[in-house]
Amino acid sequence: MKSKTGQKEIRHSYKLTAALSVLAILMTLMVTISARSESAAFGSKDKEVFADQRKRDSVKSVEAFSKVYSVLISPRCVNCHPAGDVPLQGDDSHLHAMLPQRGKEGKGMLTMKCANCHQSENTRGPHTPPGNPNWHLPPADMKMVFEGKSASELAKQLMDPAQNGHKDMKALIAHADDALVLWGWEPGDGRTLPPLSHKEFKEAWITWLKNGAYAPEK
Amino acid sequence: MATTKLKINGKEHAVDVDPSTPLLWVLRDHLNLVGTKYGCGVASCGACVVHLEGEAVRSCVTKVSRAAGKEVVTIEGLSENGDHPLQQAWEQVDVPQCGYCQSGQIMSAAVLLREIPNPTDEEIDLAMTGNICRCGTYLRIRKAIHLAAEIQNEIK
Asked: Which residue of A has its CA nearest to B111?
């Protein structure tokens, strides 16, 4: 038989343990919620890619995204991710001459369809239309705007399937080698290249994604 | 050089040219279809518009190899007797001043009327914004397109 004092101590100990357990659960929840608010949402399909959650590194991820961002907002990328429905043109990203419209599928409309001028390859010479077999803007129902987006906004957008063309993690990684993305590094006469080589860009892109795809604060 | 087979205005042609030759120069220099004009050479003015598989492409930057085996229609083939609703309307409204850009204007307008039989002013402006007229006949072009839409509806 334990003394009354001993029983009180045991009850007190149980209460303390319970309180600490609740606190621990709450803290775990808070950390989880906090992590989710900083990194983009990962779907169940992405579990394989992120099987080892310990590989996440928010500092490394954010650092990599600053490199990615410098490419995404360069004219070769942003010109076809405009805020409006008219593509941009030139190293100063001015509105495309003749004001062609995005159209429902992002391939222009009426007499001004992209492929009416843009061939399957760059046309030689200065001020001629650049080309690619799949030349287009994002479609009207998924505009994937880069123009005017902060690094934070763009990182979150890129990881949101509802805003990124329904891409999961594997599709995002594969997108670095998309033919139209690769065009950015062979843009034809008179167009500047993105600030990083494609190899550097791809490395930064995958580093950002595989370390948790964290969005910068700003 | 290579032989490229083309179907232009319903007729088969075989031309012996470099496959990268712009379609415009094949039309004008090899087939003597000179209704299609050279304007800027960089797809920025619309004077060279022809139909390739029904689309209003700019022949100055379109390699002839792209047109191989496909249907090409030039201003000469838009109608058999020069009486396409747009050609009738153009004449009635007396659209051209110097006339240099007009074949490209009509070929673009034909695509517009096919896709939107009764276009509004806004739709006309959107569709025709890539066809430049140095004489500034834009208002008459717009008026003629409305008239052509009426003529087209009457024919139907």
From this structure: A111
Q: Is the dihedral of CA A149, A155, A161, A162 positive or negative?
A: negative
Tokens, residue A129 = 């239309």
Domain spans, chain A:
1-38, 43-210
- Amino acid (one-letter) located at A217: E
Q: Does A95 contact B at CB distance below 8 Å? A: no
Domain tally, chain B: 2
B58, B77, B96 - which closes a domain? B77
B57-115 pLDDT tens trace: 999 999 999 999 999 999 999 999 999 999 999 999 999 999 999 999 999 999 999 99
Token representation of residue A3? 């003394």
pTM for the full model? 0.84
Q: Is B94 left (phi over 0), alpha (psi -120 to 50) or beta?
A: left
Residues B150, B89 within the same domain: yes
Residues A91 and A127: their CA atoms lie apart, in Å, by 12
ipTM of the complex: 0.95
Say yes or no for a CB contact (<8 Å) between B42 and A109: no
One domain for residues B70 and B89: no
* Residue numbers of the domain that contains B92: 85-155
Same domain, B58 and B94: no
Please write the tens of the pLDDT for every residue from B51-65.
999 999 999 999 999
CA-nearest of B75, B76, B46 to B59 is: B46
Residues of B in contact with A129 (CB under 8 A): 42-43, 61
Q: What is the pLDDT of residues A103-114, one digit of tens each?
A: 999 999 999 999
Does residue B39 sit in the same domain as residue B64? yes
> Which residue's entry shows tokens 């991820």?
A61
Alpha carbons A175 and A82: distance in angstroms, whole number? 19
A119 in contact with B, Cβ within 8 Å: yes
Q: Which two tokens stand for residue A74?
A: 């360069």
* Contacts for A198 with CB less than 8 Å, ≥ 6 apart: A182, A184, A185
Give yes or no: residues B39 and B58 share one domain. Answer: yes
The amino acid at residue B79 is S
